[in-house]
Write a structure and sequence with these properties.
Elements: E1 16-17, H1 25-43, E2 55-59, H2 65-77, E3 81-85, H3 98-108, E4 112-116, H4 120-127, E5 133-136, H5 143-157, E6 164-169, H6 176-184, E7 188-192, H7 201-206, E8 214-216, H8 219-223, E9 228-232, H9 246-249, E10 256-257, H10 271-274, H11 281-299
Parallel strand pairs: 1-5, 2-3, 2-4, 4-5, 6-7, 6-9, 7-8, 9-10
Helix pairs in contact: 1-11, 2-11, 5-11
Length: about 300
């Protein structure tokens, strides 16, 4: 399905999201089209009160300041209010199941809940709640972060279907959930690393749910006609000649570099790339706000 030919309806039946893999292709495009509209309106300083009178609870089991800050900004900019339940508010949960907590928050007037890294048991409890929920994960498997990636690629390349996406780094386990998410939307993903850092066996098979993922140890092959580039690091891995440098970027003059941050400066990517004109890293950070707003507007009605 081509996102540029997709007829957005501005609605979805979904009210809860616990995993990136749950999103159907059409739901992804609904979110991205709404994010695009919201960005256009906010860039011309149009005041949006679409969340006037709405309250969003942000419930985090551990400190996650970037998550909290982005959602507080996202909600406030469209007229809503947030209620932050930090790890210091653990007394709120004492003796409560997550289902109990959801019922209490709903009775208080919360219209939706942002949570992070819920356990399988907690997810099962919240699925029985009438309170809309968005559960986030760490890193690239965070649904809103992955949506921000796609939104930025759509902006820079003008499409999603057929976009070649090169991924460098330690790719022994690059995350099947997020790679499948990209391929589901038509991206052609190539993983580039030394042979010992490429996925194998069951890990590789898990990446191919919606189409083949290419593997190479040749940067020129990975970068041929690439329009988007990223890198993945592991704490115990040295990249050697497989970091993203200006020389790598020159292999495809139209490519933009994206990253979720934080990044290993000088190892994963050179600062010349990260802060250079070919970087879409900080534009992507800004786009996270619009992706979060769109998801909440569709799910928290």
């Amino acid at each position: 399905m081509d996102i540029n030919k997709y007829g957005a309806k501005g609605r979805t039946a979904r009210r809860q999201l616990f995993s990136l893999s749950e999103l159907e292709e059409g739901e992804i495009y609904e979110i991205l089209w709404l994010a695009k509209k919201l960005k256009q309106k906010q860039q011309v300083k149009e005041k949006l009160g679409v969340f006037d009178g709405k309250n969003v609870a942000i419930m985090l089991k551990s400190s996650a300041s970037r998550t909290r800050i982005s959602f507080e900004l996202a909600v406030n900019r469209i007229g809503g209010k947030t209620l932050y339940l930090s790890p210091a508010d653990a007394d709120f949960y004492n003796g409560l199941t997550y289902l109990d907590a959801a019922h209490i928050l709903r009775s208080y007037g919360a219209n939706g809940l942002i949570a992070k890294n819920l356990s399988a048991e907690e997810i099962a409890e919240l699925k029985a709640s009438a309170l809309p929920v968005i559960n986030l994960k760490d890193g690239r498997a965070n649904a809103c972060q992955a949506l921000a990636d796609l939104f930025t690629i759509w902006e820079t390349a003008g499409r999603l279907s057929g976009v070649k996406y090169a991924v460098f780094g330690d790719l022994r386990d690059p995350g099947a959930e997020v790679i499948n998410f990209y391929v589901k939307c038509g991206l052609e993903v190539t993983l580039c690393a030394p042979p010992e850092l490429l996925p194998q066996g069951e890990t590789l098979r898990a990446l191919s749910q919606f189409g083949d993922v290419a593997l190479t140890s040749d940067a020129a092959v990975a970068m041929k006609n690439a329009e988007a580039v990223t890198s993945i690091a592991r704490a115990d891995c040295a990249f050697g000649g497989f970091s993203v440098t200006p020389d790598v970027m020159e292999l495809s003059p139209q490519a933009k570099f994206l990253h979720i941050l934080p990044v290993r400066h000088g190892e994963e990517v050179s600062d010349d790339v990260l802060y250079g004109p070919r970087s879409a890293v900080f534009a992507r950070s800004a786009n996270l706000i619009y992706a979060e707003q769109a998801a909440m507007m569709l799910f928290f009605r």
